[in-house]
């Protein structure tokens, strides 16, 4: 495996406007910039998920972009990824793709918007970037193997602890007991 090639990965429904907007913005504004200031690394952006034909053709027109479209097993397809990317610039609700990346042990870089509602520790479990300087800084941080491994492990543990069913249900049961006075 060529260690100079870093596979950035996006998983999501590209028919959703907020996802397509974020991916398009990343491909146009961030990817060329990080590949220009790359410390000898080559960043390839892999896009996985439902996408219409014209959008797929459009994105494939950019250098260092691979559009896979829908895949049968997301976890298997995501194995090529080194870093999860969630560049959403607007939207609502917790971005499940971030939790998926983290559960897969992928260090994740997201926007401040994507981070909303996640409550992971920035710099320890997740990284935040909204512009090319912040992406470069985050990618530089992750190029340090020990930091990469630490964030990957912390991310996986975070999802396992905070988002598993028994944790969620115990909170729900406690709230119900509190409300019903039992």
What best-fitting shape do the alpha-carbon axes yield? globular
The CATH class is Alpha Beta
CATH architecture: 3-Layer(aba) Sandwich
Structural class: alpha/beta
What is the count of distinct domains?
1
Biggest sheet overview: 6 strands, parallel
GO molecular function: transferase activity
Protein name: Glycosyltransferase
Keywords: Transferase
What does this 3D model show about the protein?
α1 (17-36) links the parallel β1 and β2 (42-48). 49% of the residues lie in helices and 15% in strands. It has helices spanning 17-36, 53-60, 74-77, 96-103, 112-115, 132-143, 145-162, 165-180; strands at 5-11, 42-48, 65-69, 83-86, 108-110, 127-128. α4 (96-103) crosses α7. The protein has 182 residues and is an alpha/beta fold. The mean pLDDT is 90. The chain has one domain (5-180): Glycogen Phosphorylase B (Rossmann fold). The protein has a 6-stranded parallel beta sheet with strand order 3-2-1-4-5-6, sandwiched between helices.
């Amino acid at each position: 495996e060529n260690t100079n090639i870093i596979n950035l990965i996006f998983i999501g429904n590209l028919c959703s406007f907020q996802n397509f907007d974020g991916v398009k913005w990343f491909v146009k504004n961030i990817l060329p910039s990080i590949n220009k200031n790359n410390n000898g690394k080559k960043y390839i952006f892999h896009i996985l998920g439902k996408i219409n034909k014209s959008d797929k053709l459009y994105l494939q027109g950019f250098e260092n972009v691979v559009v896979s479209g829908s895949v049968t097993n997301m976890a298997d397809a995501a194995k090529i990824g080194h870093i999860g990317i969630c560049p959403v610039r607007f939207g609502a609700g917790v971005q499940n793709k971030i939790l998926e990346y983290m559960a897969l042990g992928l260090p994740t870089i997201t926007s401040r918007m994507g981070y909303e509602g996640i409550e992971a520790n920035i710099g320890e479990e997740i990284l935040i970037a909204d512009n090319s300087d912040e992406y470069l800084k985050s990618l530089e941080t992750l190029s340090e193997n020990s930091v990469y491994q630490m964030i990957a492990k912390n991310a996986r543990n975070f999802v396992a602890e905070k988002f598993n069913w028994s944790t969620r249900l115990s909170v729900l049961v406690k709230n119900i007991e509190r409300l019903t006075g039992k």
